[in-house]
Structure formats: C-alpha cells, structure tokens
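Example record used in the benchmark description.
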Amino acid sequence: MSLNQLQLSLQFGRFPEAATHRELLSRSKVTRWIRHALAVDAEITVRIVDAEEGQRLNREFRKKDYATNVLTFDYQQEPTAMADLVLCAPVVEREAQEQNKSLEEHYAHLLVHGTLHAQGWDHETSDEDAEEMESYETDIMQELGFADPYAKD
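Model output (structure tokens):
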C-alpha cells in the first residue's frame, strides 16, 4: 500500500503534563497515523494544548465555550491538504479513561478523525455521512492495528 506524503509540524503547548504527551506522541507515530488517513499529500500542523487554549480556540472559532477533543482548521483540500489539528490533552486523556482506551489509541483515532475533516469529511451533515465517516475511520484504525473506535463495550 502506497501512502501519501506528509509534511508534519508537531507542537506542544506549555502545560504541566506536556512532557508525558510529548513522550507518547513521537513524530514517527503521529506521521504514520495521519498518513494512513490521507487521500492526497498534505501539510499538517498538530498542536497539543491545555484546556485553557483548547477552550479559547473553540470559543473563538466555533462559538462553543468549552474545550473539545480535536479542532480541525482546514485551509485547502486539493491538490495538497493543508490544515492545523489542535488536540486538547486533558480532554483526550479524560475521554480515553471514560472509554477504557489507551491514551495512544485515542490520540490515534482523533488524529485520523481530524485528518479526515481536513480533507472534507463531515459527520455533522447527515446520519449517512456520519455512518460513512465512522466506517472509514474504523477501517483505518484497524489497518493501524487498533480496535474499532466506535465499538460499544
């Protein structure tokens, strides 16, 4: 299987637990996870932030005053996808615990999810679109060696 090319910038905000997340999210892992979700070559910045920055960005850009797990800012979809993916470390950590998943597995899923958004996938347009996106995410995650992220316990 031939994977598309990725230019990755991996950034970590300044927060107390940043070192733990940096250790878990090696450049090679993040690159591998994102490349498996790419249908075109891409330039993507991934930024891991604290709850304060995550909430501020969600409030400013989506008018929702809470920190969410992943925000996708897509600037171009073709011929090269260009996007920023912002993941809120405390939210990702909390959700992983609530869903009985490893932190690594949940990060992989959210990076795949955000990368699909960067290429125009949208689960909020219809139930059919949501089902199609979830199915594709599941295929990608299983290809990467992870379980179905939407499986019910």
